[in-house]
Design a protein that fits this description.
Blueprint (H helix, E strand, L loop, with lengths): L1 H6 L1 H5 L17 H21 L1 H8 L4 H17 L1 H12 L1 H22 L7 H32 L6 H32 L1 E2 L2 E2 L1 H21 L13 H19 L19 H17 L3 H7 L5 H7 L11 H5 L1 H23 L6 H26 L11 E8 L5 E4 L20 E4 L4 E10 L2 E10 L3 E8 L5 E8 L9 E7 L5 E5 L2 E5 L4 E2 L3 E3 L2 E3 L2 E4 L4 E4 L2 E3 L4 E6 L6 E7 L10 H24 L6 H26 L3 H24 L6 H32 L7
Parallel strand pairs: 3-8, 10-19
Antiparallel strand pairs: 1-2, 3-5, 4-6, 6-7, 8-9, 10-13, 10-14, 11-12, 11-16, 15-18, 16-17, 19-20
Helix pairs in contact: 3-8, 3-9, 3-10, 4-5, 5-8, 5-19, 6-7, 6-8, 6-19, 7-8, 7-10, 8-19, 9-10, 9-16, 9-18, 12-19, 13-19, 13-20, 16-18, 17-18, 17-20, 18-19
Length: about 725
């Protein structure tokens, strides 16, 4: 590594003058092949590690879901704030090439430390946590630090006249990101779950493979060292920029009344700083102002991994034409690989034939609208999904549903409320949970049950924010028995079904469903409510002290809650559906992914190239970092809205869609007044001005020399 760096010191001194060999007679430099492969391996490394990170926190470090989620998002945010540090190092100190190499080494060390922390035999849980956190911090600095440099370094490889090829490079670059993401999210979960080591899931291997890919990424990048165009760093850019801005503000404040007005407030710095620097700062500021509305797009985009995933867990995830939950989770990355060539070779040329000028900023505005449409589609899906979901009751309310396990109709009356006005038929599915108002945190109700003309009263206590099942059956004495049971109503995140048994038999029963064991005591004992994987369950073994039976439960569907009554006659069953199964298929999420991915192609890839093309040479990495920081601020918006809004999910989706439409209108107005610049042309202009000044200076010196020659020589006294 260090020998490669030593050899490239001279190359950086004349980086802009160097021309890289081309690929097969095209205008694409050979060097970009090494950069694209490097990016593929690095993204495989990053996304592969993240694919199992939450599970690692929960199952290996034994953290709860809240802590695991918080640390996961903190790590993700850090990965998008550190690009600014990497950009400053690249543009001010080391240059992009050296910055990528040094921070990639930090990246590799982070992966290794993280993998060692996942080995059970190394230390105790405290050491595992310490190594994991140190590893994640190093990875965040590594991946964030090189993120703005790699894209900008790839753009540097192209000659000034190859603008179209450079634009397509950013599309290829983006494809390599998503290809690495798709492959890694398939491979690393398999390594974790299917390969066993140290007596359990092999997290060490799941983290070790991404570490190996990062090593490969580093080796590939260094291999192309002799082919790269390397622009030298411009000195401490940030300090010079800050001083220039500070001087302009100070000078304007002091002389605003004395001196004539300037066309731009930065022009007040002309007394001390060169015009070139001032012009470059203006360019960066104008782009950064355009970035202000952009985090809203990322606020919607990043909900794929949170809100949309949670929506998917409440949907039917059965296989249809090979489509399943795991495929839908990767749908965005898969569609990116398909959409990029379609847009570049099909849609954009067709729009051009229609004589519609689709500028980069117009593309980004259309991308925002497409993302808003995606969230409108998600809203429609959510409205239908929640029909099968039981929402928890608010304060001073309970939820209750009634099971009639008797031989004829019953009527249930709650004093002061017509909660159940119609008679309940025997052994039928409950009509659903009904809201029961309370006078305080809890309330005692005297419930009247009418059966065959006879009335019976039960005193039952209900607590707020709790769901209950009220089972009505007849005791051996003939009296009506009311049995109130607390219910679990939250659907499984994996789409599993929940199941419980009521044993009306006179003997205790043990039931085995798949790998799960249920126990139901005799005489209307109720088993635990346990989640079981979705599937057909026939020939289920049931054992009593005196006999063994087999029962057929049939299909236990995604997200459904079932109560199975084991009757007294032999061992027949009555299966009742307490909470409806997820009846909206997960493929209904495909339209929202299609719209969002199309929006991403038009917004993200274009923005990446726009950030490069509009940045002066000395600040390309800094502006790339600014672009990446819009992603971090997008996540902050999600947290603010999600925590502060307190609204239903479909309404939140609609709110985000409306906000993005409003932001896209604001952005379109800002874009209308934006004037595109060519940083390379700026370089030429200032270079010519500098050359003219040198010529003028040279001419004046010649005149001085001539005049001195013509002067008469003095004689010595």
């Amino acid at each position: 590594v260090f020998s490669a760096l030593d050899k490239d010191v001279d190359a950086e001194d004349h980086g802009k003058g160097q021309r890289s060999p081309k690929l097969c007679g095209t205008n694409y430099p050979v060097s970009i092949a090494f950069i694209v492969v490097n990016e593929f391996c690095e993204r495989f490394s990053y996304y592969g590690m993240k694919a199992v990170l939450t599970l690692y926190f929960i199952h290996y470090l034994n953290w709860d879901k809240d802590l695991s989620t918080a640390v996961y998002h903190a790590f993700s945010s850090l990965c998008y704030f550190t690009p600014l540090l990497g950009a400053l190092i690249a543009d001010s100190w080391l240059g992009k090439f050296k910055t990528i190499i040094y921070l990639s080494i930090v990246y590799v060390i982070g992966h290794v430390v993280k993998s060692v922390g996942a080995i059970p035999d190394v230390g105790d849980s405290t050491l595992h946590i310490a190594l994991s956190m140190v590893g994640l911090v190093l990875i965040a600095f590594g991946t964030g630090g090189i993120k703005p440099c790699v894209a900008a370094f790839g753009g540097d490889q192209f000659d000034e006249e190859n603008v179209k090829e450079r634009t397509k490079f950013f599309s290829i670059f983006y494809m390599s990101i998503n290809a690495g993401s798709v492959l890694s999210t398939i491979v690393t979960p398999i390594l974790r779950g299917d390969v066993k080591c140290f007596g359990g899931d092999c997290y060490a291997l799941a983290f070790g493979v991404p570490a190996a890919l990062m090593v490969i990424a580093l080796v590939v990048f260094i291999s192309g060292s002799g082919l790269y165009k390397k622009s030298p760093p411009e000195g401490n850019v940030l300090v010079r920029v800050c001083k220039c801005i500070g001087f302009a503000i100070q000078n304007r404040w002091r002389n605003s009344k004395k001196s004539p007005k300037k066309s731009h407030w930065l022009d007040w710095a002309e007394e001390k700083y060169p015009k070139r620097l001032i012009q470059e700062i203006k360019m960066v500021f104008r782009v950064l102002v355009l970035y202000i509305p952009l985090p809203m797009f990322w606020a919607l985009f990043d909900q794929q991994g949170s809100r949309w995933t949670l929506q998917a867990t409440r949907m039917n995830m059965d296989f249809v034409m090979g489509v399943c939950f795991c495929v839908v989770k990767m749908l965005n990355a898969l569609l990116i690989l398909v959409f990029i060539p379609i847009f570049d070779m099909g849609i954009y040329p067709l729009i051009g034939l229609c004589r519609i000028k689709l500028t980069p900023l117009r593309k980004m505005a259309v991308g925002m609208i497409l993302a808003a449409i995606a969230f409108c589609a998600a809203t429609v899906v959510e409205i239908n999904v929640i029909k099968t979901v039981v929402e928890p009751s608010p304060a001073k309310e309970s939820l209750v549903q009634v099971y009639n396990l008797m031989d004829s109709d019953v009527t249930v009356q709650f004093p002061g409320h017509t909660v159940f006005s119609d008679p309940l038929k025997p052994n039928e599915d409950p009509s659903g949970y009904t809201s029961l108002p309370l006078t305080g945190e809890s309330q005692l109700y005297t419930v009247t049950v009418i059966h065959n003309g006879a009335e019976s009263q039960c005193e039952l206590t209900f607590t707020e924010r709790t769901a209950y099942s009220l089972f009505l059956h007849t005791a051996q004495s003939g009296d009506i028995v009311c049995k109130l049971v607390n219910d679990h109503i939250t659907k499984s995140e994996t789409g599993a079904a929940y199941l419980r048994f009521i044993n009306t038999h006179t003997e205790n029963i043990n039931i085995t469903v798949g790998t799960d064991e249920f126990y139901a005591a005799a005489n209307y004992g109720i088993s635990q409510n346990i989640s079981v994987p979705r599937g057909e369950y026939n020939g289920v073994a049931c054992e009593t002290n005196s006999n063994q039976y087999h029962i057929d439960l049939g299909l236990l569907d995604f997200g459904a809650f079932y109560t199975v009554v084991l009757s007294k006659v032999g061992l027949t069953t009555i299966k009742m559906e307490d909470i409806q199964a997820n009846n909206i298929h997960i493929t209904w999420q495909i339209p929202q992914y299609v719209f969002l991915t199309a929006g991403e192609v038009m917004f993200s890839i274009t923005g990446l190239e726009f950030s490069y093309s509009q940045a002066p040479a000395s600040m390309k990495s800094v502006l790339q970092a600014g672009w990446l920081m819009t992603v971090a601020f997008g996540n902050v918006i999600v947290l603010i809205v999600a925590e502060g809004a307190g609204m239903e999910q479909w309404a939140e989706f609609l709110l985000f869609a409306g906000l993005l439409v409003a932001v896209s209108i604001i952005f379109s107005i800002m874009a209308y007044f934006y004037t595109y610049v060519d940083p390379d042309q700026l370089d030429k202009t200032f270079r010519e001005d500098t050359d003219d000044e040198k010529v003028k200076s040279s001419d004046s010196k010649k005149k001085e020399t001539v005049s001195l020659t013509d002067m008469p020589k003095q004689t010595k006294m």
